Amino acid sequence: MSSIIKRAFELQGMKIGLISDFHDIITDDEYFMSKGGHLHSLLSNFNSLNEISSTLPMDVIFEVKNISGAEEFSLEVDGSNYYLSGPVERCEKECSDKRSSIFGNMGFFSKVAVLELEKRGIFSFHSTSFCKEDENRLYLVLGGSGAGKSSVLLKAQTANMNVFGTELTHFSLNDGKLKLMEGSLWQNCRMGNLVIDFPELLGKYGIDWSGEGDPWYQYKSVDLGDWKAGKAVLEDPELVLLFPRIESERENSVIFRSSAEKKDYKIYNNLADKVSPPSMLYGTYFIPSIDDDESQKLRMKAAIDFRRTANIIDCWEILASPAQCLDGII
Fold this sequence. Notes:
It is a single chain. A hairpin with a 4-residue loop joins strand 7 (123-132) and strand 8 (137-142). Strands 7, 8, 9, 10, 11, 14, 15, 16 and 19 form a 9-stranded mixed β-sheet that branches. A 6-stranded mixed β-sheet has the order 3-1-2-4-6-5. It has helices spanning 23-27, 29-32, 88-94, 108-119, 149-158, 191-197, 200-204, 264-272, 293-309; strands spanning 5-11, 14-20, 50-52, 60-66, 74-78, 81-86, 123-132, 137-142, 162-165, 168-174, 177-181, 186-190, 219-223, 233-235, 238-246, 254-257, 279-281, 285-287, 311-320. By secondary structure, it is of the alpha+beta class. The chain has 9 helices and 19 strands.
């Protein structure tokens, strides 16, 4: 019988205890510390996972059990305790793209973390975000996968904007006060966005492009920490909401102001993006959604409260190419 290994992290003040009988998955710092700058790192979702003593009382327990010969994964949930079992060792060793693994940035654990943060009053936008610190103004780019959030962030980088989040941006509301918390600072860039759309950023990021292969099918994880905002928490900043649809071949832009008052459901859907869908572990094994009625109601209330409380000074709908996506906005 394999021995148990424990490890613990703090995320936005929430203590998470990890337990497994497959040691390699718990000790793999490609997941937890972005060792080697891999695409599957959790730090392309979250700003940091601070390691803490596993002997402390935990808010969340996440246990992974390896069952050799198992043909599927099973999940049991008891409050904030999660028990996942299945062919972990085989999947970890055979998987060529670990983004959809248990601890990958598109995997199941990330959804658990976002859901558990919500229970503690911290909600997570699926967004890129950047700011003008001298004006205490944050630009929040909201959209699902493929909307073009990364292109908007890279365009902002060409204008020397400071990065606040590359994939998630968190917020909390207490006593009518809005706080926005810095998100991830590692950006998983499609090389085509750099080589073709914003080649001037290659030098800025210290990237040498070999010219081999199709850049649209190549990705690189880029640490944008050197261009992060000066503050990790912004209190009641001016907010500009951006809802993009970026198309690389588009010649004519359609960029217009819209009313934030009609965006409650859009905001809700964005908050649900990183928690509500079911998971397909390792691209093969289906895990049903962990979302429930109460979580959805809480999230909808948070979306409405955010829109009513936040100092939203502008709201834009964007249909444009990468080069033109911020025309007239910044």
